[in-house]
Design a protein that fits this description.
Elements (H helix, E strand, L loop, with lengths): L15 E6 L2 E5 L6 H14 L3 E4 L5 E10 L2 E5 L2 E5 L1 E2 L4 E2 L5 H13 L9 E7 L5 E4 L11 E7 L2 E5 L9 E5 L4 E4 L8 E3 L14 E7 L3
Antiparallel strand pairs: 1-2, 2-14, 3-4, 4-9, 5-6, 7-8, 9-16, 10-15, 11-14, 11-16, 12-13, 12-15
The chain binds N-(carboxycarbonyl)-S-(naphthalen-2-ylmethyl)-L-cysteine (MD3) and fe (iii) ion.
Fe (iii) ion (FE) binds next to loops.
Amino acid sequence: MTLDLFGEEDLQQPTRIDRIGQQAWVLRGFALPWVEALLAALDSVLLQAPFRQMQTPGGYIMSARLSSCGDLGWTSDGLGYRYSPIDPASAAPWPKMPTTFYEIAEAAASAAGFADFLPDAGLINSYAPGAKMSLHQDKNERSYEAPIVSISLGLPAIFQFGGFQRSDPTQRISLFHGDVVVWGGVDRLRFHGVLPIKPGHHPVLGEQRINITLRKAG
Ligand code: MD3
Ligand code: FE
């Protein structure tokens, strides 16, 4: 007879945790056990809300393409950007947040000490080689109390983790397929960005990096 000594939570592989700030952590490979389910869910979200290019407030075209799911999604136009319950491309609500997204968000936030994280916005960024995201702060969310959970998939990225002013020095942190970053509290408003993605081929995602950020925006 075999005893079932391990509950479901024990199936999670041990994760290497890198602390990058007082309340900011990289959970290495944390999303890997969910990756198949995650990619299937992502496909169905992107069928309803395909990636599109957006403008920065300065009027530039962002090199990363974006989509969203959940109650609130990210939209931009010449006038600025904001969260909206409607996808302007389809004039319909954003696709529902897949349960896998909730599961990873809750598990990762709790591993980093943020209990009961329930996101209402899932932003999805797609980077082709050469695409980047300039240093910025995430400050359009209604409350800064909740953490943000970010899932990296596909090609690796060099993530820039800065201070509270754009000119502050930045740490460079490599992010790989399956890595999850959780940040909140005192680190919530740090400047951050992504350096241009190096050309390469990822066995699962090809010539692409996808980043999903799960947030409490409303
Ligand atoms: C912020 N995305 O969508 S998330 C964004 O990889 C965004 O696509 C990037 O910035 C991406 O707004 C980065 C990862 C991240 C990690 C740690 C942080 C963002 C952070 C710590 C403080 C502030
Ligand atoms: Fe950001």
